[in-house]
Design brief:
The complex is a heterodimer of chains A (83) and B (152). By secondary structure, chain A is an all-alpha fold. Chain A contains four helices and no strands. In chain A, α1 packs across α2 and α1 (2-14) crosses α4 (69-81). Chain B is an alpha+beta fold and 152 residues long. Chain B has a single domain, classed as Hotdog Thioesterase (Thiol Ester Dehydrase, Chain A, Roll). Chain B contains two helices and six strands. The chains are: A mainly alpha (83), B alpha+beta (152). The A-B interface holds A 39-45, 47-48, 60, 63 and B 90, 92-93, 116, 118-121, 142-144.
Chain lengths: 83, 152
């Protein structure tokens, strides 16, 4: 299940990667801003796409805690379990 | 917040202030106008002896009215009013189409509709019309808004 979420998340994130970062670079521990060079404006779009894809709703504090792929995966997991 | 108070809180001044009046503001959108004065400095160079308002300036006008004025309205109750915080804005993306030229002295009207405002990102669809009600340009603009405590 978790693996499935990661694949789905990776697909979303890869749409927002800058040209100089390949989707191969997306690992569990990848930091969105520092390693994947995603800017904060695109991170918002990632979160909105994640909400649609997983049918969940994220809050400001979720956004603050979402620095790496692993953080995002954990937040998605928690939101899905709380449904 | 009154429309004039929104304009007063814009983080711009001459020669980069492209909002004269707001005709309507609510949480879903904004309508405002601006007159491109013939003395604006960029007309000297764009183009040589054939002044036309640059597309980047039309985009900026759309952004100041459509994005920043609306952002100030949406954030209005969160500390701007008491003067404890100030606004920082970063233009994050634009996708514009330009249909008609705007010449010196023309007044334009910008209509902006909010697509979303979440996690400090405001995304709007904007349209600019000339005095003949013809569509001059249109597009999608987005920006990030940040409230900064004074003295920090």
């Amino acid at each position: 299940m978790k693996e499935e979420h990661f694949v789905k998340l990776k697909e979303i994130v890869s749409n927002y990667l800058p040209d100089d970062v390949s989707s191969e670079a997306i690992q569990l521990e990848s930091n969105f801003l520092e390693e994947l060079n995603i800017n904060s404006a695109n991170l918002v779009d990632i979160v909105l796409d994640v909400e649609d894809a997983f049918d969940i709703m994220l809050e400001n504090e979720d956004m603050d805690g979402m620095q790496t792929m692993a953080d995002a995966q954990q937040i998605i997991q928690a939101k899905l379990e709380a449904k | 917040m009154t429309y004039q108070e929104i304009i007063d809180r814009l983080p711009y001044s001459q020669p980069f202030h492209f909002v004269d009046e707001l005709q309507h503001v609510d949480s879903d959108g904004v309508e405002g106008s601006y007159c491109f004065h013939p003395d604006l400095h960029f007309y000297q160079g764009h183009f040589k002896e054939n002044p036309v308002t640059p597309g980047v300036i039309l985009t900026e006008c759309c952004a100041q009215i459509g994005l920043v004025c609306l952002g100030i309205h949406l954030l209005g109750h969160e500390g701007l009013d008491d003067g404890l915080k100030s606004l920082q804005v970063a233009f994050s993306s634009s996708e514009m189409e330009f249909l008609l030229p705007v010449f010196p002295g023309e007044t334009v009207r910008v209509i902006s509709k909010k697509e979303y405002f979440r996690f400090n990102k405001l995304k709007c669809s904007v349209q600019m019309f000339n005095a003949k009600e013809e569509l001059v340009c249109k597009g999608i603009l987005a920006g990030m808004f940040k409230m900064v405590e004074h003295g920090s």
